[in-house]
């Protein structure tokens, strides 16, 4: 059984690097926050890109990150949560380079190395409406911990790249394996990133992704230079340029997911307009 009755925990996972995981985590978090939902981002990537993007402190200066949380005792969650970030309504558990070492240590210090994050996050059930977990580009223990904690999984897939689905079978096998310890986890589907439906290669990838994953999320994210710009400025796409196409797409994606997951958004359109 999954331990989360009230909070929706979404792992954004794909062991392929550069397919849009972190971008999805940050902008979904920002849009959920705007809907009035209480959001926690958990950074499980040693590269800590999500933390660099929305954290008020550089991850190297944070004492208690997801690395320490994984190896600590059950009551340590409050020490890991930073309520203030660059994005309103969004709290953060920082990632850090130390996660690499933690991943090695987990095997030696615990009988259930894939279930440490879940047991540490459990006290947050009912406190946050949604927890978004940013995964590293691997299928090792850090990703297993994220998936074992999750109520739902989204797989960002780079559309327009002929290699976008490379490794997808391994990912699906891994999710099946995780279902032995987290049987209720649900794969929400593939999220097409850098999608352009006018391009044949994107159309081809879309139909293959549908066959592979069984479901494609109804909102697709197009290519935009604003994505990099927002990361450099440590802002969400909404804060950078709310009327841009890509900001609108993340807004629609969040609204669609809020409906699917029955997240109780305060009011449509949210605050901070
Ligand atoms: N829709 C997009 N349009 C243009 N660039 C994007 C888009 N999504 C992501 N990127 C860029 O692609 C790179 C990888 O994205 P990122 O979200 O960091 O992927 P991951 O976390 O899977 O490694 C980053 O430089 C990011 O700014
Ligand atoms: Mg990333």
From TrEMBL:
A Pfam family this chain is assigned to: AAA_31
Coiled-coil parts of chain: none
Organism: Paraburkholderia dioscoreae
Listed InterPro entries: AAA_dom, DNA_Partitioning_ATPase, P-loop_NTPase
Boundaries of every AAA domain copy: 7-185
Swiss-Prot/TrEMBL keywords: Plasmid
Protein name (record): Chromosome partitioning protein
CDD domains linked: ParAB_family
